[in-house]
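User: Structure with nicotinamide-adenine-dinucleotide, C-alpha cells only please.
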Amino acid sequence: MEKILNYINGVLCEPRSYQYLNNVNPARGEVYSLVPDSDLGDVKQAAGSAKKAFPAWSGMPVEQRLAILLRIADLIDRDLDKLALAESVDNGKPVQLARTLDIPRASANIRFFATAAMHTSTEAHLTGEEAVNYTARTPIGVVACISPWNLPLYLFTWKIAPALAAGCTVVAKPSELTPMTAYLLAQLCIEAGLPEGVLNIVHGLGAKAGQAIIEHADIVAISFTGGTATGKKIAATAAPQFKKLSLELGGKNPNIIFADADFEQAVSTSIRSSFSNQGEICLCGSRIFVERSIYDRFLEAFVEQTNRLVVGNPLKDGTHLGALVSEAHLQKVLSYIELAKKEGGMIVTGGTRIQLEGECASGYFLGPTVITGLPQQCRTNQEEIFGPVVTVMPFDTEEEAIKAANATDYGLSATIWTENLKKAHRVSAQVKSGIIWVNCWLYRDLRTPFGGMKQSGVGREGGWEALKFFTDTKNICIRL
Ligand code: NAD
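Assistant:
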C-alpha cells in the first residue's frame, strides 16, 4: 500500500517512529494509503531544518525566491489532472470540482502571493522637518501553517504561499484525513528546486503532530484554518508564548433572500452555496432566510433543483455531490438531522444516507437535505453541521432578517439577495460577518481581506493582510 511521506529538510522521509495511520478513500469506504503518524521527534527535526533555512531564504533576493515559487505553480498546472484525481480520491469530492476549483486555485494562490511580494512597499511618516519615520517589515521567522480537510491543497497553499513569499520558512501540517495532495506538492517542491528546509510538511494527528508544532518554541506565528473548538485550543497554547495567530474557524452562514431578488439567480446560486463540495465549505450558507411573500415559491423551486442534484461516484462526470470525508463525519451530520427532527424540523428532502451500487457501495454518501420549521435558537440552527444540510425559514421585515442572521456565535460570511442597492448596503453594514456577498456567492478576488468575526476567527487572510501577518513590523525614527 502506498506510503505518504513527510517532507523534512528537502527530502521525503518516513516518520521516525515508522508508525502510520490508515488513509481512507471515502467514496469506497476503504483504506488506500498510509499516512505518517508523526510525533514530537519529527516536529523537532522539521522546526530545526526550517530554522536553519531561514537566514538564506529570507535573505535571498526576492526575484530569486519568487522564481522558485512560480516554478512550483507551473508544476501544479502541469499536474492538474493527477492532482485533481488525488484530491477527489482522498476527500470524496467530485473530480470535476477538484479540476476546476481546488487545483487551479492552488497554483493561483502561489502565483498571487509570489507576484504580490514583488510589489510590497512600506510606509514612511515625515514628522514636520524634524524627523522621518519609516516602517520596516521583515519576515517573522519560522511559522506553522495548519489546514483542514475540506479544500485540502487549496487551503494548504493559501497559507504556505504568503508565508514563503514573505520570506518565512514553514512547518506545515495538512489534515490527517486528506494528506495526499500535500505529499504530491512536496514532490513538486523538490522538482522546482525549493531549497532544503524552507518548507517542511509533517503529517499526522492534530492532537499529536499538530499540537507539537504549535507548542514548539522556535515557531513564532501560527496560521490555522479549522474548527472553532480546535482554534480555542490553539489560542490557549499560543497565548502564553505570545505567538502571532491567524485563526480561520467555523461558520453558520446566513443566506438572506429578499422578495425583490433576481429569483432564478437566487435559487440557482443558493443551490451552489448550500451543496457545493457536499456542503463542506466554511462559506456555505447553511441558514436560508426568505422573505415571506416569496417563501413558498422559493422553497418549491429550491427543493425541485435540489432533487435534481446527482449524488454519486466522484470520479464520474455529472456527479454533483460526492462522498462526505469520513464515516465519523457522515455520522455527525446524520446525528444533526436526527436532532433537527427532535427539535421539530421537517425534512423536506434528503436526510438519509445514500447507498450506491458497485465500487462505491461502502462510501459515505448523503442526500442533500432541506429542513424547514425550525426556530432560531435550536441547536440545528446554532451549531455548524458542515455537510449538505440547510434550514429554510421565512421572515417578514428587514430588521427581523438582520436579527436572525446575527443570532449565532459565528460571523464568517453572509449572502444577501436583493435588487435594491440601498437595501443591500444597509443590510450588509448590519450583518456581523467578515465577508458579505451581494447577489453572488464565493466570488473571490484574492486581494480582498478574508476572515470571520466573533467565533469564526481572529485576523484576516488574503492580499496584504496575509503578507503582513508573516512579517515583523518595526518603526525606525531618524531625528533630522
Ligand atoms: P479541525 O479543527 O479538526 O482540524 C484542522 C487542522 O487542525 C487539521 O490539520 C488537524 O489535524 C489540526 N489540529 C487538530 N487539533 C490540533 C491541535 N490541538 N493542534 C494543532 N493542530 C490541530 O478542522 P477540520 O475538521 O479539519 O475542518 C473543518 C472545520 O474547518 C470546519 O469547522 C470549517 O468551518 C473550518 N474551516 C474554516 C475555514 C475558514 O476559512 N474560516 C475554511 C475551511 C474550513
